[in-house]
Amino acid sequence: MTKVQGNPTVCKGYCPLPNSATKSIILSMSQPFKLFRLQQIDSQLDRLQARLGEIETILNDDSAQRQADSEHDATQAELNSKLKALKHAEDEVRQQRLKIEQTEATLYGGKVRNPKELQDMQNEIAALKRYLSVLEDRQLEAMMAVEASEETEQAASKHLEATLRAGSEQRQDLEAERAGLQNEVAHATSERQATISSIEAADLNLYEQLRRQRKGLAVAKVSDRYCSACGATLSASLLHAVRSSTQLNRCDVCGRILYSG
């Protein structure tokens, strides 16, 4: 806290005034101090609004969730494809075994007695069994592919769950922060209105014009003999005027309103 001669105690930065005291305190301020106080409030409002904008951007950004959803959907589609391939391989093995069983049943059923036909059937059974081995290898490969896809899908599912959980926690934190910031904005806006009501129209117009021209900073505090905004050295006469006058004085270099502090 720093004491300002002829003015109430102020903070080195934005310090909200008690609601019950705001109006009476503001009325007792000098015109430069009122504008400096308004600058403090507006700077704080700028910071609050900037953070609120950041929060809204984050809350509206669901890219991480959409990415996790997309990855999970892709792994599910891949798993479904591998399961379909496995079912096809299993069906082929089943049908091949059935062919072997049927051919063996005919061979050993006693109905075929011709030696050549019997030899042909034995050769056919041998060929069917060789192809069955090929089909079983394919089935094994399909089973291994399904297992790999299941692991990938499970990992994507866990990642999606973690992303949703983190997003939910972040949203709760940001919504709580937003509510607090909105309360601060309401309080600062109320104090701003009380401050503006005691400022002369011409001075307020100058302040608003400088705010637009000087990137939001219309009032600069004097630090030793320097303008705290642009760093220019103030002349002795200007420094004296700033410290002793209740009228507005401006920096010769940047044009901002000077406040002695």
| Relative strand content | under 5%
Please count the helical segments. 6
Strand order of the largest sheet: 2-1-3
Structural class: mainly alpha
Total number of domains: 2
Per DSSP E runs of 2 or more residues, the count of β-strands stands at 3
Rg, rounded, reads 41 Å
Largest sheet composition = 3 strands, mixed
Order of helices and strands: HHHHHEEHE
Helix content: over 70%
Give a description of the structure.
It is a single chain. By secondary structure, the chain is mainly alpha-helical. It folds into two domains: 19-59 and 200-259, Helix Hairpins (Orthogonal Bundle), CATH 1.10.287.1490; 67-186. The protein has six helices and three strands. The protein has helices at 19-27, 31-60, 63-108, 115-196, 201-213, 236-244; strands at residues 219-223, 226-227, 257-259. The protein has a three-stranded mixed beta sheet with strand order 2-1-3. α1 (19-27) packs across α4 (115-196), α2 (31-60) runs antiparallel to α4 (115-196) and α3 (63-108) packs antiparallel against α4.
Quick summary:
It is built from six helices and three strands; from the N terminus they run H-H-H-H-H-E-E-H-E. With 261 residues, it is mainly alpha-helical.
